[in-house]
Amino acid sequence: MATVYSIKHTDGIRTITIQPGTLNGPGGVLTDSDLQLYGQGTLQWGSGVDQNQLRLLENFAVDEKALSPGTPQDETDLAVSGAGVNNPVAGQQWFNLTDANLYTYDGAIWRLGGSVFADAIAPTNPITGTLWYDTVANQLKIYDGAFVSVADLYLLKAGDTMSGNIAMGGNEVTGLPATPSATGASSKEYVDSEILAHFVLATGQFVDSDGTGFMTGSLTLSYVDPEIEINGTGSGSTLFFQEGGANRGALLVDFPAEDLILRKLTGGVTNNEIKLLDTHIETDATNGKIRTPQTVGGDDSATLTTRLYVDTEVAAATLNGATVFSSLAVADAGDIAVTGGKIYINLTDASADWKQVWPAVYS
Asked: Average pLDDT for residues 243-272, to the nearest whole number?
């Protein structure tokens, strides 16, 4: 009685069935693989076995499809029955004659093998992912449109040069030398120790922040629009000017009035001062006042006023019914004119009969 062959795959689950007197494979009743597998009683099986051995030996060597690179040609592409790779099984290998690479079928697609070419010359017909060890440069290179040295993509442990920035992502750079080179990265510990070693505050070297100590040289502010800010929290801020250790003058701002006061000091005691107030400038009470009114109409007899005020008052003034003029115009008898630093009196009504009375003119 004839026997049906049931050939198991390596996983012990899948099987290939071969009926007695039949062929399973290229040219057979069933085609479960690219090998010719013969059933019991099949005649003329010798050439088929030889064919199988040759295909296994050459790893089914055939070119790839022109329109589907990485896929082997089949009998349709070659126009030869049973030629090419038509029914691959998982694990089957195929040597691609087009790019000279060995591929493995994973049950769905063909995958390029993991071979690394070691040569002084780059491999021909490389594909993306091809690895080549350049024996001249002693570098491993990967193909991605062109061969790029892996050494150019990563930092070498033995030392390397960056061509871009490194973002630490909040992590630290540790293991720095205790004493770095002039251009080397420095640790916080090194910086702190250098500050302590080189910036010891020697007596008399700096002016203390508590106000004790004096400048022994000039202070030059060299900047665009430099400023000195005195930030006081009491009733006023004072800037003292000293000579020989004694206060000779002071400039202060009095709060809350916000008056600006310039004082002359003798033995630390105010000798005289000038105040810049909201409405006028004045000296201390013992030396009178110097005032510039904001508006016409000031009446302080100790006031130094403006030319505008004088001219306005003179133009509006009358003396016992006489009108005061600022020019020698037609006027009535008894009218007065003040012009050019001189005083005149008109002698005749409705005329310009002016007589200079001051400074006196003798004739």
From this structure: 72
The whole-angstrom separation of Cα 318 and Cα 315 is: 9
Burial 128-146 (b: 16+ CB within 10 A, else e): eebbbebeeeeeebbbeee
The 10s digit of each residue's pLDDT in 139-169 is 999 999 999 998 888 887 888 888 889 899 9
Are the beta carbons of 272 and 288 closer than 8 angstroms? no
Q: Which residue's entry shows tokens 């250790």? A: 245
Radius of gyration of the chain (CA): 56
- Across 201-208, average pLDDT: 64
User: What's the chain's average pLDDT?
Assistant: 81
* Cross-strand pairs, 254: 236, 259
Cα–Cα distance for residue pair 289/159, rounded to 1 Å = 81
Token pair listed for 224: 């665009």
Question: Angle CA(136)–CA(111)–CA(56) in degrees, nearest 5?
Answer: 95
Exposure on the CB side of residue 205, measured as CA atoms within 13 A: 5
Q: Which long-range contacts (CB under 8 A, 24 or more apart) does 196-199 make?
A: none
- Alpha-carbon distance 114 to 124, whole Å? 16
Which of 344, 342, 341 is closest to 331 using CA atoms? 344
d(CA 15, CA 318): 138
Are 74 and 82 spatial neighbours (Cβ–Cβ below 8 Å)? no
User: Are the beta carbons of 140 and 131 closer than 8 angstroms?
Assistant: yes
CA distances from 71 to 86, 92, 234 (A): 11, 13, 90
- Strand 147-149 to strand 139-143: parallel, antiparallel, or no bridges (unpaired)? antiparallel
Pairing of strands 131-134, 116-119: parallel
| Predicted local distance difference test score (pLDDT) of residue 305 | 61
Q: How confident is the model at residue 93 (pLDDT cuts 50, 70, 90)?
A: very high
Q: What is the mean pLDDT of residues 74-91?
A: 93
